[in-house]
Specification:
By secondary structure, the chain is α/β, with parallel strands linked by helices. The chain is built from 17 helices and 13 strands. The relative contact order is 0.07. The C terminus is likely disordered.
Length: 421
């Protein structure tokens, strides 16, 4: 069987701030990636040159406000059988073996798919997400609609056939560039940090104060979508002679940024430094698990995560159980440890009250087993959030409403079974 091939296509204009981060992110596709095609729609020559230097194929086009036409022009730059559409401010998360299997579906299967819908969220921690057909066959579908682009079949009158990729297979998250008052506050933070750094430099002051100012500016820049500026600040902070807690803070921030951009060897080197310099072992383990997960080494990441309960960074930021459990669930699902994934999901829904976020995954992992059985499992895990769980499951397809009704029946008939001790 010929290995499936996929091209990443982007439309960029002169408003793009962090194309570099997006281009680094697509490296996660590994052997699946044929090429990256960048269609310049009024983009600056500097931006297009940066894309060329990254290895992307670049075409300088025109921008007349028709995003659908620009997306189609970008797809015409490749002969790959599959195209993944990204926007410059987005990042990709992918399980290569699972996506390979999905892309390799027989082309003449019943209900042959034109596209694959993936979850698109704004920011890693965002609760709200949409499903969009971002992966498609350019020979079978194209974008239409000058004002609001949408993917439609080439053949008139036929409906788009789309498969859903699980969030553990492929997902996209957007760097949230703040607007309005929030953006103004961040801009002021950068200005204050600029002034502090200028003063420290003029007075020849380094050490802890310099590292603190650099880390502060890097965090504000990152929140504004300026990852390149944040990277420069953190690399500079790392080289400053300062107290170990201050340098550790800079290295931790730099490690997370390198992981997001696919610089895994650099991230591993920094994690080794953190361990050698007395950093929190649990937090170093958390970072190490993130490196393995991003590289598609799900079992290694899972083995690390299942031993963690929480982790604390140098500045006191806590990576709490829900976040660790979520990653553990995703990794367990990737490697086929479905009962382990179910256990994590039950805890997330019942103990931590995250039914809105994880209810759909709970039903998927439970499968065809009885609704009453799942209700009993949720009650045994924790009864404090039953009302919220029932409300969230009611809004999902079956067996969600049946499980919700079973939870309500237990609360009505056996209040003692759900009493908080």
């Amino acid at each position: 069987m010929t290995a499936p091939r996929i091209a990443v296509c982007l439309v960029v204009n002169d408003e793009v701030r962090d194309l570099h981060g997006c281009l680094q992110s697509v490296r996660q596709l590994g052997h699946l990636l044929t090429e990256v095609c960048v269609y310049g729609a009024g983009a600056t020559e500097q931006l297009l040159n940066a894309a060329r230097q990254s290895g992307a194929k670049v075409h300088e086009g025109q921008w007349d406000g028709d995003l659908a036409a620009a997306r189609n022009a970008a797809a015409c730059m490749t002969d790959a059988p599959w195209v993944l559409v990204l926007e410059p401010g987005e990042r990709l998360r992918v399980d290569i073996p699972a996506l390979t299997k999905l892309l390799a579906l027989p082309e003449r299967m019943v209900g042959e798919p034109d596209a694959i819908a993936v979850e698109v969220s704004r920011g890693r921690a965002a609760g709200a997400a949409t499903r969009e057909p971002r992966v498609y066959r350019p020979e079978r579908a194209h974008f239409v609609g000058a004002l609001e682009d949408r993917l439609e079949p080439m053949e008139p009158g036929r409906e788009l056939v789309s498969l859903n990729a699980g969030v553990e297979v492929c997902s996209v998250w957007a760097v949230v560039v703040p607007q309005g008052d929030q953006r103004d506050r961040l801009v002021r933070r950068v200005a204050r940090a600029d002034a502090a750094l200028a003063k420290l430099t003029s007075e020849g002051i380094g050490g802890n104060d310099l590292v603190t100012a650099l880390v502060e500016r890097s965090r504000a820049r990152r929140a504004l979508g300026d990852d390149d500026g944040a990277l420069a600040d953190l690399n500079r902070a790392r080289r400053v002679r300062a107290g170990e807690p201050y340098r550790r803070r800079a290295r931790e921030d730099l490690t997370t940024l390198l992981i997001e951009h696919g610089y895994f060897s650099g991230a591993n080197k920094l994690i080794a430094e953190l361990r050698a310099d007395g950093g929190d072992d649990d937090y170093s383990d958390w970072l190490t698990a993130q490196v393995h997960a991003a590289q598609g080494q799900a079992r290694v990441a899972w083995d690390i995560l299942r031993k963690l309960e929480s982790a604390t960074s140098s500045d006191g930021t806590v990576v709490a159980s829900p976040q660790i459990l979520t990653e553990q669930m995703i990794m367990a699902n990737r490697i086929g440890e479905l009962e382990e994934a179910l256990e994590c999901c039950v805890d997330l829904v019942a103990k931590h009250g995250l039914a809105l976020r994880h209810g759909r995954m709970l039903l998927k992992l439970w499968g065809p087993r009885s609704a009453d059985g799942l209700a009993d499992l949720l009650i045994q895990a924790d009864a404090r959030h039953l009302d919220e769980v029932a409300a969230a499951l009611s809004a999902l397809p079956e067996p969600g409403p049946s499980v919700a009704q079973a939870l309500r029946d237990v609360r009505a008939e056996k209040p003692a079974a759900v009493r908080i001790m």
